[in-house]
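Input record, target 12 of the design panel.
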């Protein structure tokens, strides 16, 4: 039974999460030649202050990008 774990920022709609889950399920079941019924997908959402890239939170990175754009 394939178990797929996804991590993403909060803010996506339920519809968007359904669409990505359906697309990943289809790709995994086709690639692994297994039934879609055996594919499990776990989505974990993270707040902007709990997800880091290069030592900065996503909130800090967004603020820095906004400042760069306004210059």
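The sequence produced for target 12 reads:
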């Amino acid at each position: 039974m394939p178990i797929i774990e996804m991590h993403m920022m909060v803010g996506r709609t339920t519809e968007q999460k359904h669409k990505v889950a359906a697309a990943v399920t289809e790709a995994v079941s086709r690639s692994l030649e297994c039934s879609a019924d055996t594919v499990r997908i776990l989505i974990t959402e993270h707040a902007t202050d709990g997800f880091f890239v290069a030592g900065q939170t996503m909130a800090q990175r967004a603020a820095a990008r906004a400042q760069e754009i306004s210059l």
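The chain has two helices and four strands.
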